[in-house]
Amino acid sequence: MAKEEHIPSRRTGKTSLGAKVFSYYTQEERRLLEKAAKLERRSLSSFVALAALDRAQRIIAGK
Asked: Which UniProt keywords apply (predicted)?
């Protein structure tokens, strides 16, 4: 099954923020995140960062 939408790597053509963010998950949450990241062929940190950015944009847009 082909992906409906390609989301480029966060590293492509962008400079890093240089800040670290730590997050903690239960074992069940971690397994869920790892499974989703694997399906999108991303690292866990990349998947979480993209999800957080998407959520932040939705909140700011009022959705």
From this structure: Toxin-antitoxin system
The one-letter amino acid code at 45 reads S
Alpha-carbon span 23 to 12, nearest angstrom? 24
pLDDT per position as a tens digit, 24-57: 999 999 999 999 999 999 999 999 999 999 999 9
- Geometric angle at alpha carbon 37, from 43 and 7, rounded to 5°: 85
Which amino acid appears at position 60 of this protein?
Answer: I
Position 16 in a domain: no
- Domain count for the chain: 1
Model pTM score:
0.68
